[in-house]
Amino acid sequence: MATEWVCVQRQQDECRRYLDQFKVLDHPLKQSTITVLESRGTRGKVSTTANGVSLSSNNSAAMSAAALSLDPLTIAFDGSDPLSQFAKQQSTSLGKDPLSRMAAEMESSVSVPLSPLGSRNSLGKGKEPTNLLELDLIEPWAARRGAILNKYTTSEKLSIVTSFLTGGETIKPQTTMSEKVKYRLEQLDDFDDGSVRQMLDLSQQEYVVKIEQLNHELVQAWNQDQRVKALKIAIQCSKLLSDTSVIQFYPSKFVLITDILDIFGRLVYDRLRTKADYIHPGTREVTSLPESFTPDMVPESAKETCQNWFYKIASIRELLPRLYVEIAILRCYSFLAQDEFGLALRRLTKMIRGIGDPLVAIHARCYLCRVGMSLTLDRTYIGENLDDILAVYHTIFNGGIRSEIARHRITLNGYLSLYLPALDWILQGVAILTTDNQLDDILQRCKEKKNPALLLQSMMQSFRSDFIASRATHFVQILSSISVEGLSRGQLFRLLGSILSHTPPPTEQRTVVLASAMKTISSLGNVEEFMQCAEMWAQYTSQHFGLKEIDTFLGQVLQQMTPNRLYEQHYHELQVIVDKIVSNAQDVHGVLALDNFLPLLELFQKETMKLEVCKNVLTSYRNATAGDNALINDPIVTNALMYISRVLNDSVNALTGEDERRQISGLVCHFIRKVDFGRDFEQQLAFYVEARSVLSNLDSALSTLIHSVNRLATSTRRIVKGQHTQKTAAFVKACAAYCFITIPSIIDVRTRMELYLQSGQVALLNSCLQHADSCFEAALNLIPEMPRMVETDGKMQSTEGFIKTFVVNFLSTLVIVPDNPTQGVLYLLRLLLEVVPKYPFESTSSMLSGIYLHVLDFLSVAAQEVYPYHIVNVISNDELYGSDPKFIAEVNELCCTVCDKLLQHLKALLESNALRAQSQLALDLFLKIITGADLSVDKMFTLTVNLWNLAVKNRSAIDPKQLQTVVMYTEHLAHITQVESQRQCLWLLLDKMKSRM
């Protein structure tokens, strides 16, 4: 050996380090934040905060640029985060549907901003509402139109009649006003010329594109002062609403056409307003009309122009376009008279009676009510429209309509659904500011009609939910007894269940409502309808009833699903029922213990569905119990969750994605941590044994089980206060054996090493020395198996840092581990020195030398008479050997061996010209020697001097402050060392060190 290391006895405070110390003003892990008070491009003061230190500058542009450069996303999105930017984009024309985008383009081309009809106007403080929509009591039309367009689609071919999709038309020049008026009146009826074309065989998408083109043509004609052309486009669009050849597409067509009419109406209104110059009383100042103007403020010229528009529209020959176009510009009556809206709305209501097709008529009434609600607070015309609908309601079911339905090859149910958007809107308007007594009258009138199911469905969708809930018993009775031709009774009960799930009925009615409803639902005779209803009533049942009612409900579902394996056709509905029951129940543990819950889960024979359901159940259980301290000790609940966990575990295989595996493991681990049998530790261990046999495919679950068993052993020791009885000693040994047997089942080598070390520490804490030795030995033998690179979060990372951290932790534990008499002195350390070099360290890495330096620290402590820490009832090597000379000789021999390895590494660094690494290693070894070795030995003193010379030889590679700190530390050791020979050597060494500084 090149060295002759002899460990020296020293005080514990000699181990204190005085190296690399510096004063910090704040916690180094505190996250730095920078707050920009002004966005880019603005002038102003910018304040930044970094670790609590406030900075300010007048140069705002420079500061903003510096701050924003820290975040690339901030630069890309001009100071706002991406989601906010996208949300902002949705409010612009880029995020709208094509018609709305065209409307936005049109709005940008006119001088006065347009406010869409049917939208909720923002009211200033103290401003009285002027129409029903401003009351915010009704869902805006804009929120409904998207759902209508998505629901009412068709694959049939469509047609369109127009003369404005082949380009502009030639406008005949007029010289006098009379010629101009005559020409425009002639144009209104000029639809029979050769320019009118009928486009056939259009798909739905092509039809929508043509409608968008008409919308664009209308706006373009208006901007080019071709008012008559714009009016003709509006008329032709209105005429399209009389076509019901593709009847199932009619509600969507209604939405598209009325969008164009809304734009036309806004154009006319804003044009009249810009022409109406207003002179303030007592002044000569001419301004535009204010927002809330009155007819007496409108000049006669503007009123005359307004009347001309209504005259033009009145001259339209066909009823339907005349109605729609007048409704579109109905707002223009505000230029003529104060109370004209009410009269016009009632007049138009009566005119709609002339439309023979009930579907066309109800949509015309819908448009009238929609426009009227945005103009006035008067609701009289809405009631009249409802009266007219009820008066002709029976015609929907007459022979002519049934023949039309048969011709279109749709069912009566499908035909009646076409009425719902319009009927819902009208009934919603009727319900505004209406008393419960008035709504009761409407309900009475509707249920007296023949086949009132359509009316009742629309009523439940449109009336206030509290009105429906307070009369839940009455509604159940009505829905159970009425004729439901064209609709299904199950559809009505499904809707009622949806309402009651969100707005429960009075407490005294809830039981009666559930019993009566389920009685009717169970007797429907159609399993599909039953499941659709049960899917909705499951939430109501789980929210407002106890476990007994929930179990009864599940029993009814089982009764319907079991015969003839019907459950195979209703997996989706069953899944929804299970999810709602588990997620909404007040006592999730009680639900899991119900007699009918597990049998319901057994119905899912399809593996993918069963996996999804079990995952959802465990997710709901985790969400319900995450925030409380409720633990599981009921064997029935435990078995139910164990069954679900088994299903999830069995679904994991080699093809399972990492995210899926992580999600399943998280759910199962939450369940494991929730099981607690209190002081019955044997039953707790029995549960962990069963879980191990069930969860063999989930490494995270096995790891959680091992941690739980170690915690169980630690709790046992705490209860007996470290003094084990024969029974408790046997129990903790069983826990140690459980961990030692379970750890090899885990695939990840790092996890196994950590668990072996932890389990060995727990076994040592409980005086299970043989089990501790086995765990430590197994952990060390895994070091050669550790791959040099592993994938973490999609990135390849080196495991060298983990190996070093693990060894340091292991050495700190090894200080108090007594030697096994059959294995020899420091057997585990010798094994460590044997296996560590087998790990594939990088050739330029300093990790191996760093580990050897820590081994020297351990050996220095092992040679002391008294170790710095102990475990109760565990005799460490200081007591076991009592500083026996043979033991100290073994320690010194190991120190020499490790020191020689470090010197070899120093030589290798010199050969590779790694001067900086060589100087640093020489300095580190120098510190270990002066701390733990006897410098009175000539070889060690000489080695120490040579190491210092080697370190300062390349002083440019080392921080001068570090060298100065080492000198101060050496001087500190010289002052506190009690061994005279060691002190003299340190002072002599100190002189040599200072001479080379």
UniProtKB/TrEMBL annotation:
Location of the protein in the cell: Endosome
Alphabetized UniProt keyword annotations: Endosome, Protein transport, Transport
Give the InterPro entries listed for this entry. VPS35L
Q: Which GO terms describe its cellular component?
A: endosome
BP GO terms, sorted:
endocytic recycling; protein transport
Family note: Belongs to the VPS35L family.
Its name, as the record gives it, is VPS35 endosomal protein sorting factor-like
Q: What is the lineage of its organism?
A: Eukaryota, Metazoa, Ecdysozoa, Arthropoda, Hexapoda
